[in-house]
Design goal:
The chain is 22% helix and 32% strand. It is α/β, with parallel strands linked by helices and 235 residues long.
């Protein structure tokens, strides 16, 4: 287990907050974009809490990492982070670890599909690709949420879109009319897939129901797990 100090809390949206941690025992943290950490709050106490979270930052040569966490009413960890945690608090963590990562060679389009804080691993991957000039086909990030005020990393994604020509950020709102896409996130990437000659590689991260629905839609279109679909479930 490694030590992590909470160094900043950023209220990204009402229900999604960013928590920045520093690992003082290391000069830098090396990991693969898309991996997760197992975070322990109140370590050593009887009521310690352990949860897994995808890392929302990317390897940048520092000893810091970022998590974006959705508030879940009654959830022990989110209650603690949103209501009690403060800058300077000490946590312990294991990782980063996991295999929810990019292929070694990106030889077809990639669709990232997320809801809420499920955007975490995709933010990591997209920034890593953009900063390192990784050669890709088209990369599209679909983000489903209720209202415009709930869109995570909106300005950052628009900036990356302006400098990364193969990248497109596609937020989809289910409870509000606006200038962009509306309805449910599935219909928008399926519309594209139904008109493509080659299957994209589709990554899902978010609530179990969203992922189950997405896998069903893609299975009906001949997509196969691992080969064409990769998933990370957080609830």
């Amino acid at each position: 287990m490694n030590v992590a100090i909470l160094t900043n809390i950023i209220k990204e949206t009402d229900s999604n907050w960013r928590f920045i941690f520093e690992s003082p025992l290391f000069d830098s943290i090396n990991f693969v974009p898309g991996q997760l950490v197992q975070l322990c709050a109140k370590p050593g106490m009887e009521d310690s809490i352990v949860r897994n979270y995808s890392v929302a930052s990317w390897p940048d040569g520092t000893n810091k990492f970022e998590l974006i966490i959705t508030y879940l009413e009654g959830g022990a960890m989110s209650d603690y982070l949103f209501k009690e945690a403060k800058v300077g608090d000490e946590f312990v963590y294991r990782g980063p670890m996991g295999i929810f990562t990019l292929p070694e060679t990106i030889d077809r389009d990639i669709f990232f599909v997320s809801t809420g804080s499920g955007i975490s691993p995709f933010r990591s991957m997209v920034n890593w690709i953009a900063e390192n000039g990784i050669e890709t086909q088209n990369v599209k990030l679909f983000f489903g949420t209720r209202k415009e005020k709930d869109i995570c990393y909106y300005e950052e994604m628009k900036l990356i879109q302006s400098i990364f020509p193969n990248f497109e950020f596609i937020p989809v709102l289910s409870r509000e009319e606006w200038k962009g896409k509306t309805g449910y996130v599935h219909e928008h990437y399926l519309d594209l897939i139904d008109n493509m000659k080659q299957k994209p590689l589709v990554y899902f991260c978010g609530w179990d129901r969203m992922i189950s629905e997405g896998r069903k839609h893609l299975s009906e279109r001949g997509f196969e797990m691992t080969k064409d679909i990769r998933v990370e479930i957080f609830g």
